[in-house]
Specification:
The complex is a heterodimer.
Chain A: H1 3-24, H2 39-61, H3 70-99, H4 107-117, E1 127-133, E2 139-141, H5 143-157, E3 167-173, H6 186-197, H7 200-215, H8 226-253, H9 255-264, H10 279-282, E4 287-288, H11 295-309, H12 311-315, H13 321-328, E5 338-339, H14 344-368, H15 370-373, H16 377-397, E6 405-407, E7 410-412, H17 416-429, H18 431-436, H19 446-468
Parallel strand pairs in A: 1-3, 4-5
Antiparallel strand pairs in A: 2-3, 6-7
Chain B: H1 9-13, E1 22-24, E2 37-40, E3 44-48, E4 65-69, E5 76-78, E6 83-93, E7 98-104, H2 106-109, E8 113-114, E9 120-121, E10 126-135, E11 141-143, E12 148-156, H3 161-168, H4 188-193, H5 211-219
Antiparallel strand pairs in B: 1-6, 2-12, 3-4, 5-11, 6-10, 7-9, 7-12, 8-10
The chains are: A mainly alpha, B alpha+beta.
Chain lengths: 475, 226
Amino acid sequence: MNGDERSRALLHDTAACYRFVKSTSAACRLNSGFPSYSDPTRKLIAHIRDLSLSTQDFLQTFPSQNPDDPAKYRSKREQLWLIRAAWKSLHFYVQPAVDANTLNVPTELVQLLTQRVRAIDNCESLEFAVIHTDKLNYFQFPPGDFQQTVIDLGDVVSAKWAFPPDLGLIALPHSQAQHLFLNGLLAHEIGHFVFAKLNCFDRITAAISEGLRAAFAPPIDTALNATQLQQFPEVLQDWAEELFCDLFGVYLLGPSFVLASIELFDLPNILAADGTMDARAAGSQFKFEWSHPARLFRLSRQTALLESLGWWNAISENGSHHIRIMDLCRNLRQGSFSYEEVVAPLGSKIIDAFFRTVESIEAEVARVTEKLRNGDGRAREIAEFVELKDVISTYLCQAVIPSTLFVGNEFRKPSAIVLLNAAHLFYLSGIEDLMSNSDKPDLSDIRQRDIWMERVENWTTKGLEDIALPNERGG
Amino acid sequence: MKQPRPDKRQHIVDRDFDAGVVITPMPLNEDWSDDAVNLRLGNHFLLPQSPPQPFIVLDDVKLDQTRVHVPWGEYLVLPPHHTVLGSTLEFIKLPLDLAGQILTRSSIARTFIIIETAPWIHPGYRGCLTLEIANVSNTPVLLHPGIAIGQLLLLTVDLNDEEKQERETLKGSYIGPTFPEAPTFKSLREQLQKVGVDHPKVPTLPWSSDDATAERAKATTLAPVK
């Protein structure tokens, strides 16, 4: 190509790149109208919009810098390619963020979780932009991924942007935005952010190494290749982080988090007709996977934590089959679990190594959440739960939002955690009582059940919103 | 019926759960007067949409309305001569011996905002109150959630035991709403059959290709006009 041809080609491709950036970020409009967004999501959208405007400004002057030098032409091409690559990455975030307006995100729950997390040392300014995903799962975007994209883009367009370091990005399934109780699983994803921010991994890495050493003594089979050996610590690291986040979720939300886990993991399926564990149905739930510990293991540790915190005694009398499932998981032994993604004897050794690490992980979660528990705060929370759970159930059973309770001749505003947990248990075990109070008490009518279940979630959501209001009377 | 004169909030709330009024979040003391309590505007609104046909049939079809959430500190602009469905921030539950009436606060009314055209609240009702807000002035008005917009009056009613028992069950089209809900109607045909009309007339839309409209027009097909 001669100089003119190069110039025209570059002009065309710069304009095409400009259009790509402009259209990618076109949805990032933040007018004062609707839809409305939480502050963290607004920050994320505004950040992407600013990146877009800066990129567009850069591209506007880009061709005029076009040199005739063929070597520099190559460099220009590289820059355009890098800009496109960065925006291909950013493209991923735009629509999920724009869709996550305040009608499509459990805003009150996210605020509650954020408020709880901020009680932790060095987490005082954390905030979370909850965005959508088309996957039926919850996950946290490692902040480094987004930041690196932004840094790479900034290097090209000679700009420096600072992505808010305390802004976590969490995804929830777009279809589940209205399901308050299931969304308690967001606590697990927040745990991932805290795990990274507080460098928790550094504190358990020694325990992992020690666990591996102990489990694989006497010396490891020399037939193992180096790659396999290298993978063991990585697998244990992933399992450790997942367990950390599970337990973190329990500290943050109490039993409601565990009940949500049972729902997401489809664990009611393990129940046999007589209420015991159906060994065949439960089989796969005992298996560790390369990225996650076995679901029943996770549930057993969550339940054990509830027990040690004092929650178990407060909820064990509830008639829900979810409580029965928790009860079945309380005494699972190490030998019940398997890891079949490596040859047989190794799987049990890796699990053994992990079990040796569990205590350190639990200690680390307890250390991190110490401030959250705030002295005897947890005990007070559980005592309040015991005192108010039946009152809250009575209110819900009468289709009344339990955010201002009249107890013992005085107004009481329950704490958000108490309301959430009592309402969640009612959701699981009290819907039939509520339906019996209605003029359509056909308990076998699934549509009616759905309506009342949705109502209970709506009342609880509104209750959390009421409780969060400042200057309200009561208690 | 006579109006109770609660000296303070406790007067009407201080009874056991079944017999007492619930208002939550509880209004502040300053919002209570001798004969009424102020209620505030909630965060959710239903914006009416222009229907595909140039009229609304009060039939058992859901009207297409768009729900919006207005966060604290922000506002909804209600243009002149426009309407919107809102709701109270407060959720109320009335016992079986009290009915209620919600009225526009006088200062709000003086801006020619009307908040309620179906103000009566039956004994046993529970839910946030849906407000049919109309701006009948010539000026746009900003609606900020949280402003005291209405006042609730309570009136005693005498129900016999049988009537009370009937009202004890949760029933009705709107049980425990927490945000404004679109209206629901019974079948037009069924309603009018009670007055001897088998084929209520509804305009047909020859230009419409909308299947649902055509289907409804077919379902309510009218006897030829003689």
